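Q: I'm teaching a short session on how sequence maps to structure, and I want students to see two examples side by side rather than one. Could you give me a first protein with its sequence written out and its structure tokens following it? Keep the formatting plain so it prints cleanly on a handout.
A: Of course. Example one:
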Amino acid sequence: MFYINCFLAVLAGTLIPLQAGINSKLREYLSSPYYATLISVTVSLIAVGLFCLIARLPLPAQTTITSAPAWAWTGGIVGVIYIFMVLLLAHKLGATALIAGIIGGQMICSLILDQFGLIGFAQHPLNPGRIVGIVLLIAGVALIQKY
């Protein structure tokens, strides 16, 4: 099951540059990163809403909804900021440099989240292997963005 999950993670990763390219093209047509972001998240809302209707998923109980901590409601804001930043940078950096930078940022943030077990992640302390891995990744990002 571990390998299937790793494969699915890689598959999900392939969607990131596709989304960046598609949204960047939408930005060109609309001449606005703001409206391109709005359309992107609106289409996402409609797609997820249709999925929930088709799958006949029951609504969560009100007590379940109100028991979530305040920070748990900020994921949508983070998603909008991510989409907007990609829309601003995709045409300037190109797919490879953009995604390299994103991966570098993801790895740094992930190390911090794992180190301290933040926002529900299991704690995985820094160790020499992780440190060397992130240094190599950052070096790779720098090389990709420079050349």
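Q: Perfect. Now a second example for contrast.
A: Example two:
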Amino acid sequence: MILLRSLLYFLLLVLSVAVFGTLITLLGRFRPIEFSDQMATRWGRLNLWMQRVICRLDYRLEGAENLPEGACIVMSKHQSTWETIALRGLLKPQQSWVLKQELVRIPLFGQGLTLVKSIPIDRAAGRRAVLKVVEMGKARLAEGRYVIVFPEGTRTAPGQRRKYGVGGGVLAERSGADVVPIAHNAGIYWRRRGVKKYPGTVQIIVGPAIQSTNKKAAQIMREVEDWIEETQENLSTIGKSSK
């Protein structure tokens, strides 16, 4: 049943991407940015609902009070595809994601990403990629948006760690924006490889804002990494043995 529910959800996920991507692509260029932001957020919330109903995969959010109304940099643990959908629905609509540039080349989906003011980068570009994050990120922050960063750069299995990239820290240092860290255990229920979505409750924790004023990028990233990884260790892994 888990496999069948997962396949059904996957088909509906693809359909939702096509529908919402088409709406944003066809109408977003003629409407204010608020239209595309709201549509993208509705897509995220719809998928959270479908996950709960079809896959019996729910979530529990702690620390929402740490999310500011204004601009900030959000740095999240990256374990699976789940958080790339969930954060879109859980955070305020005004979001700009730092993502690999290959995604904006996908028909409909990529055009939709452009219209919601994403920040596409070539991860192999090194310093040039960091400079692009800083340039575009500062512009998005000035508009009052959240800039979403996965500092590990790629999905990491539960219990494992990767080196945190410095790009988000450089943006924080040069913009003075606060950094809000996020930890979660989605990788237990939605693995980075594989089709199955296991039933359970993803725990997602939003940490207190980390101030960047008078700090260097390396120090900011140490504080972000320390908070995320320490919190990850304390997250419940109930149900892991049944996966």
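Q: What should students look for in example two?
A: Point them to this: Residues 2-27 form the longest helix (26 residues). Also worth mentioning: Confidence is low (pLDDT under 50) at residues 238-243.
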